[in-house]
Amino acid sequence: MTDSTPPSIRVVLVDDHTILRQGLRMLIDAEPDMAVIGEASDGDEAVSLATELQPDVLILDLSMPGRGGLVVLPELKKVLVSGRVLVLTMHDDPSHMKAVLAAGASGFVIKKAAHAELISSIRAVHGGRNPIGGVEFTDEALESFVGRAGTGPLGQLSTREVEVLCEIARGFTTKQIAERLGISLKTVETYRTRLTDKLGVRDRSDIVRIALELDLLTP
User: Fold this and answer.
1) CA 128 to CA 138: how far, in whole Å?
2) Are strands 84-89 and 107-110 parallel, antiparallel or unpaired?
3) For a Cys staple, 114 with which of 25, 143, 182, 219, CB 3.0–4.6 Å?
4) Cα angle 28-33-34, degrees, rounded to a multiple of 5
């Protein structure tokens, strides 16, 4: 007997690359609690589809012909009654993060991230949390993040560096961080070195202190 229970997370994909959308659809539809209910290839079509289908999560690429994702983000926020926007981007610089979040995105995932990160980010967004490159923020912390991105310690770090900082602060080893983020041990060590150089930290206690001061750690 076929299970007719509808998926709890209804997703709309917005990207101008058909092959990428097909890959994302297969990835998402394979999850038992989510399903793709529509696809769009540009900003105008995204607004129209969001208005009609009212998805729980709209995954939005920023680089599209015509009106790009960053341009239509505020409009999407207006037409979505309760749905939230998760941005797919190739960029992880602080100024880009600030623009995306200030425009109304609930979080974003770097395109080269592991598939598991995208799936977990969809669940996080649907659950009211704000994933930024794999790191989950409360609404209050997100507001603080947006307000201070580009200035102070956060302004010096890329999305992945913030992610590694949080993982270190949570007590994970280099090997565990590599496994959790889907990167190599050498890459984790590189990010550790960058954190030391940019923030002037000496050990994990300094990293924990900074993460707590910036409200980067959620319960």
Assistant:
1) 8
2) parallel
3) 182
4) 35
Distance CA 46, CA 27 (A): 20
Higher pLDDT, 1 or 96: 96
Which token pair is 154?
Answer: 């956060």
The three-class DSSP label of residue 114 is: coil
Q: Give yes or no for a contact between 215 and 144, defined as CB atoms under 8 angstroms apart.
A: yes
Query: Which residue would you say has higher pLDDT here, 93 or 112?
Result: 112
Which H or E element spans position 110? strand 107-110
CATH number of the structural domain spanning residue 124: 3.40.50.2300
**CB-based contacts of 37: which residues, under 8 Å, 6+ apart?**
10, 11, 12, 53, 55
Using DSSP's 3-state secondary structure scheme, residue 34 falls into: strand
Angle formed by the axes of helices 94-102 and 69-79, to 10°? 30
pTM of the model: 0.64
In sequence order, which residues have a C-beta less than 8 Å from that of residue 105 and are 6 or more positions away? 60, 73, 85, 86, 87
Residues 92 and 62 in one domain: yes
How many C-beta atoms lie closer than 10 Å to residue 70's C-beta? 21
d(CA 67, CA 110): 21
Domain check: are 86 and 174 in the same one?
Answer: no
Paired residues of 39 in beta bridges:
13
Residue pair 107/130 in contact (Cβ under 8 Å)? The answer is: yes
